Amino acid sequence: MGMDFFDAFKMGLDxxxxxxxxxxxxxxxxxxxxxxxxxxxxxxxxxxxQKLRKSGILEVDKMxxxxxxxxxxxxxxxxxxxxxxxxxxxxxxxxLILSTKGKKIIVQAKRYKKNVGVKAVQEIAxxxxxxxxxxxxxxxxxxxxxxxxxxASSNKxxxxxxxxxxNWMLQENESNKGDSRTMG
Length: 184
Known about the structure:
Number of helices: 7
Strand order of the largest sheet: 1-2-3-4-5
Distance between the termini: 66 Å
Order of helices and strands: HHHHEEEHEHEH
Shape: elongated
Helix content: 55-70%
Oligomer: single chain
Largest sheet: 5 strands, mixed
């Protein structure tokens, strides 16, 4: 008289069901706990994103590379892009993948103290066909070397430097001023 997996599974479900229906308050408690946890996690995530978006350039200068990528994710999301972070390693040179109106854009984020050179432009330019993207950008909190600008120009790579990044951040902060829900 062997019990197969299905019978054992059904017996387990029956047992779980009888436990949940025997104590409606416990069931309600469990549902409230999990629902509350989910809501709490959602609120924490929204507040974290708002805090990242509100960062000033001086805070950006102190960020780790990954935190800068997460900051850009929040900023670009606020600018209307669907943004996906790539894994930390094995990303083939792209840190973020943006989607908008049927267009795919790959971005390399460079949080640097010095000017960004040719290497970043080479990496994102070669990643373009791997990701089958329409555009590729390099975004930095710094500036670009002349060689990087020349290579970017001939490879149709958009460079977003400190000045442009600060403009985006200011635009985002301006659009948040009218929003009464933003937390300080």
